[in-house]
């Protein structure tokens, strides 16, 4: 069976073009199997440990659903206070311990770089489910899969990434992954929440066109895909600063009336108020389909790493 080029999934820039093609093709196969309600047992006898030291709904449950759909089993930690980390145990020691219980480990952690630390502590595959304000590589894969499904292509699209680009690990990984394609970006944010320089430089190095702006209206007129993100209260040390920018961008039906009829609206969720609920019924509102795509994408990753 085909394998990924590396044993861990830690960063969006690690995937080769062959990896990306393999993952998306396998995900499409699994999506068809799920639609046909076929039972799969490729990972029967395997155990996945999901360790979430930050809150999660979609990522944790979709990883666990993916493992169950493939016939495997799951051990789960859903909050840090229920682990020995609350007693002062290091992440390294936690991972060394879990190494003895599971065949692969999914980790979400508040510290940037935590997934790399975990990968050094075990020979089992580690999948980064979000490391603070760093990266979220499996989210970027399901986002790419969603864009391709919704638009029918990736090359040639203009993608607007909107909101908290400074702290948003989903947009860091998505910009990195999409920069392997012939796309152009609009980075839309308040001045204090711009895309980190290292991500911008990565996009520049790959020759991808981008513009930075605070004008959502302009972005909606030009974009084929608009990717909204929430302003993340938990990343702000100063509550007053959060209050100043929390309602910077709110996507409404009226605003979308000026967009391309074929526009795709995405959001990694959870939303707070950055997309009005009356947008949900529009044909291009893809965010709940996007969330569902997490299952076949994560099925593909687990199967390719563990089969």
Detailed description of the structure:
With 307 residues, the chain is an alpha/beta fold. It has 2 domains: 12-135 and 294-306, Aspartate/ornithine carbamoyltransferase (Rossmann fold, 3-Layer(aba) Sandwich), CATH 3.40.50; 137-291, Aspartate/ornithine carbamoyltransferase (Rossmann fold), CATH 3.40.50. It is 38% helix and 15% strand. It has helices spanning 17-35, 58-69, 91-99, 114-120, 137-151, 169-178, 197-205, 216-222, 239-245, 253-256, 287-292, 294-306, and strands at 47-52, 73-77, 104-109, 126-131, 158-162, 184-188, 209-213, 225-228, 264-266. The strands form 2 sheets. A 5-stranded parallel beta sheet has the order 7-6-5-8-9, sandwiched between helices. α1 crosses α12 (294-306), α3 crosses α4 and α5 (137-151) packs across α6 (169-178). The longest helix is centred in the N-terminal third of the chain and has 19 residues, at 17-35. The mean pLDDT is 93.
Write out key terms for the chains shown.
2 domains; Rossmann fold; 4-stranded parallel beta sheet; 12 helices; alpha/beta; 5-stranded parallel beta sheet
Poorly predicted sequence stretches spanning 5 or more consecutive residues = none
Q: Indicate the percent of residues in helices.
A: 25-40%
Structural class: alpha/beta
The spatial strand order of the largest sheet comes to 7-6-5-8-9
Task: Briefly summarize what is shown.
The chain has 307 residues and is of the alpha/beta class.
Q: How would the blueprint of this fold be written?
A:
Layout: H1 17-35, E1 47-52, H2 58-69, E2 73-77, H3 91-99, E3 104-109, H4 114-120, E4 126-131, H5 137-151, E5 158-162, H6 169-178, E6 184-188, H7 197-205, E7 209-213, H8 216-222, E8 225-228, H9 239-245, H10 253-256, E9 264-266, H11 287-292, H12 294-306
Parallel strand pairs: 1-2, 1-3, 3-4, 5-6, 5-8, 6-7, 8-9
Helix pairs in contact: 1-12, 2-12, 3-4, 5-6, 5-12
